[in-house]
Specification:
Largest sheet: 4 strands, antiparallel
Distance between the termini: 90 Å
Number of domains: 3
CATH architecture of the largest domain: 2-Layer Sandwich
Organism: Clastoptera arizonana (Arizona spittle bug)
Number of helices: 6
Oligomer: single chain
Protein name: Pre-C2HC domain-containing protein
Length: 255
């Protein structure tokens, strides 16, 4: 069991408790104190670190273990002290990352369960997963796994490699074209790229994380325009999107 201490780093979660709306069961007003809440938490025998702070209208209990927060939420305050309070569970900022990814050209014959297993093999956890025609939409909650999936695609049990794109690039099929996040070139992905890295913001040979060019002053390495190399408004991209596919048949007949 842990006593109240300062939690190092970002707490796993927190519970907010209103103190101005507490009422006795006979409708008389009541306000819970910080010390009173600390006694309650201590009686629950928490397994992790925790602490309590005050706001102008309530109390916030911080927990390093989500289990302890859930125990507090399940506590029946009216049984212990004959009054009720409103409580809300709060998550830390690191749990708020949500990005949708589209896996492209997944055959309809492949069930979503096998897609999930293939993602697990790459150590990628997803939230919601749903099929959209020949594509599969995923919700990624880890920024590192999101970047890994975008750069490397989905390895489907060493039988196929399916490309992954951020959903915002796939909302309009007519505006879609495959682009590499390594060299900014088209028609391939970073996992297969043999070129040198190029910055999407300035076009030089470094990652965008190391770019010193201002964000509001990008330079496109494709057309020289004042936008980044992945912009859907780039005229080079638009030319490629509107290009007419050409089919070439090679004949081996001698004339």
């Amino acid at each position: 069991m842990c006593d109240s201490v300062s939690i190092e780093g970002i707490p796993k979660c927190a519970v907010y408790i209103t103190t101005c709306t507490g009422e006795y069961l006979d409708k008389k007003e009541y306000t819970i104190s910080k010390e009173h809440l600390e006694e309650i938490i201590h009686s629950l025998h928490p397994i992790g670190q925790w602490s309590v702070s005050e706001t102008s209208c309530g109390l916030i209990a911080y927990f390093s273990k989500e289990h302890d927060a859930n125990e507090l939420l399940c506590t029946k305050f009216d049984d212990k002290m004959k009054f009720r309070f409103k409580m809300a569970k709060l998550g830390s900022n690191r749990n708020r990352f949500r990005q949708n990814v589209i896996l492209m050209d997944i055959p309809n014959q492949i069930p979503l369960q096998d897609i999930s297993f293939a993602l697990q093999n790459q150590d990628i956890d997803v939230g919601n997963i749903e099929r959209r025609k020949t594509n599969v939409r995923l919700e990624i909650t880890d920024p590192n796994k999101y970047k890994s999936l975008i750069n490397n695609g989905l390895n489907f049990f060493d039988a196929a490699l399916f490309m992954a794109q951020p959903e915002q690039y796939c909302k309009k099929e007519k505006d879609y074209i495959l682009q590499c996040f390594n060299c900014q070139g088209f028609y391939h992905i970073a996992a297969h790229c043999q070129e040198y890295v190029r910055c999407v913001r300035c076009g030089d040979h470094h990652n965008v994380e190391n770019c010193h060019r201002p964000r509001n002053d990008p330079f496109c390495c494709h057309c020289g325009g004042r936008h980044h190399a992945a912009s859907i408004h780039c005229p080079v991209r638009q030319q490629l999107i509107n290009a007419t596919p050409v089919s070439i048949t090679l004949s081996t007949n001698n004339k």
